[in-house]
Amino acid sequence: WIEVTQARINTFADATGDHQWIHVDPERAAEGPFGAPIAHGYLTLSLFIPLFTELLDVQGVTTKVNYGLNKVRFPSPVKVGSRIRLVAKLADVEDVPGGVQITVDGAIEIEGGAKPAAVLQSLSRFYA
Length: 128
Known about the structure:
27% of the residues lie in helices and 38% in strands. It is α+β, with helices and mostly antiparallel strands. It has a five-stranded antiparallel β-sheet.
């Protein structure tokens, strides 16, 4: 599990320049549609990497590369203080020059939430 703190949200806002009040203004966000600040969808998506690394230990490779995404949706917002985790299934493995490419179907779940924060299909390449 990874906790999504206000500090993490603020750091992401600074890095991306997205300072929308639903993310960085706790007082105003408390009065808003979600009742609290929420993480940026792309912050949630970016946490796929550390969450995925906890699930899969690939050995014997020198380089790991994010190759892309086929599908991404954000069904439910991640409120500040929530904890998220990744549930994933290996959908495909194929050879590419010098390595392999894997396709992973994933859902980033919110602890106690009815809907996932994100559903996605990720492609990663691993080179020897």
